[in-house]
Amino acid sequence: MKRKIEVFGVGCPKCRKTEENTRKAVRELNIDAEVSHIFDRTEILKRGVTSSPTLAIDGELKIENRVPEVEETKSLLSQGYILRMEWPV
Fold first, then answer.
1. What's the Cα-to-Cα distance from 39 to each of 42, 59, 84, 87, rounded to whole Å?
2. CATH no., domain 3-78
3. What is the pTM of this model?
4. Domain ranges in the chain?
5. Strands 3-8 and 33-38
6. Model confidence over 26-81: pLDDT tens digits?
7. CA dihedral 86, 7, 43, 65 (to 10 degrees)
8. Could you give the residue ranges of the DSSP H alpha helices within the chain?
């Protein structure tokens, strides 16, 4: 099942770092995920986000008003999911 991951923020350095860390976590876990960055203030407010950066996973707000480290994001992404493993050939 493809995961939907969203970073909310208008483009400040912390928001960009959150997106960067999130993309790195997805790569390291080798999961099927779509990562998007929501910049539009109207959309951000419509989604109930009041501070940035904010990270949402599968529609649920997980982290607000701080930059999560890669390991923390990996932990959130792996909760309740079986991760694909690449087996040596």
1. 9, 16, 31, 38
2. 3.40.30.10
3. 0.86
4. 3-78
5. parallel
6. 999 999 999 999 999 999 999 999 999 999 999 999 999 999 999 999 999 988 55
7. 150
8. 13-29, 41-46, 70-78
